[in-house]
Specification:
Structural class of chain B: mainly alpha
CATH topology of the largest domain in chain A: Rieske Iron-sulfur Protein
Radius of gyration of chain B: 36 Å
Distance between the termini of chain A: 72 Å
Largest sheet of chain B: none
Radius of gyration of chain A: 26 Å
Oligomer: heterodimer
Shape of chain B: elongated
Strand content of chain B: under 5%
Largest interface: A-B, 32 and 35 residues
Number of helices of chain B: 23
CATH class of the largest domain in chain A: Mainly Beta
Order of helices and strands of chain B: HHHHHHHHHHHHHHHHHHHHHHH
Largest sheet of chain A: 6 strands, antiparallel
Mean pLDDT of chain B: 88
Mean pLDDT of chain A: 88
Shape of chain A: elongated
Number of domains of chain A: 2
Number of strands of chain A: 10
CATH superfamily of the largest domain in chain A: Rieske [2Fe-2S] iron-sulphur domain
Number of strands of chain B: 0
Distance between the termini of chain B: 147 Å
Strand order of the largest sheet of chain A: 1-10-9-4-3-2
Structural class of chain A: alpha+beta
CATH architecture of the largest domain in chain A: 3-layer Sandwich
Helix content of chain B: 55-70%
Helix content of chain A: 10-25%
């Protein structure tokens, strides 16, 4: 009987001990291999190398929880704006033929400075700062 | 002698007033000479009703003589207001457009003040219903002064102006809300009442959104006329571009045209246009389709199908938004779901516009595209919620493990202490 009680106690200690160790190791392991998640507020993102972007083209990128449109103009310069239309929050796109930013939902147009030039958008797109350092593009908020 | 005293008095009073006038008012004087029309009329409290010193002509140096003729320099009123100086007094109603047009149709003259100003107002006016009726001798119709006033005219971009967008509906309503006057033209007089409750009226008058259309945006201003059957969808299409283009290319456009129906107006109304809702499509109580289509016909079935698809997408979007809110509440990663939902929202908005194609294939495709996106968003959300519960279960197990450990340690210590006591 005594042997049984000792055995039970050791088993209890074993389970508790292993569980406690697992409870400590698991979060450490998860910390070392974090799930794919983004920081809650983003002030800048890397947008890759210049060569990835053709002249007179654009790409929608994720800037935290906001879509951003990065445009490479004919001159080779880059501009970035919030890709959310100021009318009803549709995602805008770049029109290569007219060299304007278009919101296809209600045919709103913005120029390459983000200014609303026709259609229903009530105000310009928010502009982002684009810096190119060693051929790498960084997009950041105007406030930095 | 009397005349000399009178002249001296006018000169003295004029000089005193001139010296004391603010610079803006002084600006109206011609070549820095006193405008005796203003001096005398003010002195004798005979300024015209509604006169304002902020009047754009007055502040630009164009005095009374600009419209009424006469001389502003002559001190003798009989000479000043004589035919010798082209005095015309109050212009006849029928002559008002021409009186304004003397300057406003003269590009050379107008360029001095506003290089970009239009100078076709008078010719447009005579193409309007107002202008045509005035030409026919109708003295009750609107002339330039009816909308712009006569002596307190302000530029259109001045919020105090009677033709500033926020004030324009009220200005039109002065005449168009007069039931007795409108009765003579067999016109309704409740347009303002209807308009002010419409989606446009609420945006303009309540939300003070001056990009919302006022009366002139659909009817024109100087050339004001009701839009005709052929032009109504173009008028709406000046702002609702996609809707108009889709509708113009649709089969329904041809059918409407042949039947003499007014494009957009048939479903949306005109002065009292309500904010569009998804219930307008389908076969429910608020459906506009069933105004023409009865159960069993092709249009009815199409309305049923499109309304169902729109409803399905809206419902799944709302459900996904609720699930997203739950993910946020649980503190899980909502960024990707939020992105996915933006696409669903876009599909929903586009579908509402696509409805104007009246093309089953396109409408169903767009709806299905949105539904797939919504399901993807829901899948992501479900994973996050599952992860949340996995973490809770894991935390529960960890807590249980610590409790067992603590209990085991307690028993072990107690046992060791008992052994010590026994030995």
């Amino acid at each position: 009987m005594k042997q049984d009680r000792r055995g039970f106690l050791n088993t209890l200690l074993g389970i508790g001990g292993i569980g406690a160790i697992a409870s400590i190791i698991y979060p450490v392991f998860e910390f070392l291999l974090p799930p794919e998640s983004r920081e809650p507020t983003v002030s800048s993102i890397k947008a890759g190398a210049i060569d990835q972007y053709e002249v007179n083209s654009a790409k929608i990128l994720k800037f935290g929880r906001e879509p951003v449109i990065l445009i490479r103009k004919d001159s080779g310069e880059f501009s970035a704006f919030s890709a959310t239309c100021t009318h009803l929050d549709c995602i805008v796109q770049y029109r290569q033929d007219t060299k304007q930013i278009l919101c296809a939902c209600h045919n709103g147009h913005y120029d390459l400075k983000g200014r609303n030039v026709s259609g229903p958008p009530p105000k310009p797109l928010t502009e982002f700062k684009v810096s190119v350092i060693n051929n790498e593009i960084t997009i950041s908020t105007m406030e930095g | 002698m009397k005349n000399i005293i009178r002249r001296a008095y006018v000169l003295f009073v004029g000089t005193v007033i001139f010296i004391n006038l603010p610079s803006t008012v002084r600006a109206y004087t011609l070549q820095d000479k006193v405008d005796n029309c203003f001096v005398c009329h003010q002195e004798n409290e005979m300024l015209p009703e509604g006169f304002s010193e902020n009047d754009i002509h007055f502040t630009s140096g164009i005095g009374c003589v600009g419209c009424h003729g006469g001389s502003a320099i002559e001190e003798d009123e009989e000479i000043a207001m004589s035919s010798k100086f082209g005095f015309i007094g109050v212009p006849d109603k029928k002559d008002i457009p021409a009186t304004c047009g003397k300057c406003h149709s003269d590009i050379e003259f107008m360029r001095q003040y506003r290089p970009r100003i239009a100078t076709d107002q008078v010719s447009q006016y005579f193409e309007s219903v107002h202008g045509k009726k005035l030409k026919q001798g109708d003295n009750k119709v609107a002339d330039c002064t009816s909308c712009h006033s006569a002596h307190s005219i302000l530029p259109v971009d001045d919020p105090r102006s009677s033709v500033y967008p926020l004030n324009l509906p009220e200005t039109c309503n002065h005449c168009h809300g007069n039931s007795d006057l409108m009765y003579t033209y067999k016109l309704k007089s409740n347009q303002y009442e209807e308009y002010s409750k419409s989606v446009h009226g609420v945006a303009l008058l309540e939300h003070r959104d001056i990009s919302a259309p006022a009366c002139n945006d659909c009817h024109g201003n100087h050339g004001a006329t009701p839009p005709g059957i052929q032009s109504i969808s173009h008028v709406c299409g000046t702002c609702h571009v996609n809707n108009q283009q889709y509708f113009e290319k649709s089969n329904l456009s041809t059918i409407f045209s042949e039947a003499g129906f007014h494009g957009c107006e048939e479903c949306h109304g005109y002065h009292s246009i309500p904010k569009p809702s998804d219930d307008m499509l389908g076969v429910g109580e608020k459906s506009v389709c069933i105004k023409c289509h009865d159960s069993g016909d092709v249009g009815y079935d199409a309305a049923l199908s499109w309304g169902g698809k729109l409803n399905e997408l809206r419902t799944i979007h709302e459900h996904a938004a609720e699930v997203l809110a739950e993910v946020v509440k649980k503190g899980m990663n909502d960024v990707d779901i939020d992105f996915a939902l933006k696409d669903v929202n876009q599909s929903l908005i586009q579908l509402r516009t696509f409805v104007h194609t009246f093309d089953s294939k396109l409408i169903v495709e767009k709806a299905d595209e949105g539904i797939v996106l919504a399901n993807n968003a829901l899948e992501l959300a479900d994973k996050e919620i599952e992860e949340y519960y996995n973490r809770r279960i894991g935390f529960g197990f960890a807590t249980l493990a610590f409790v067992i450990l603590a209990f085991g340690v307690y028993l072990k210590i107690r046992k060791s202490s008992n052994v010590k006591h026994e030995s």
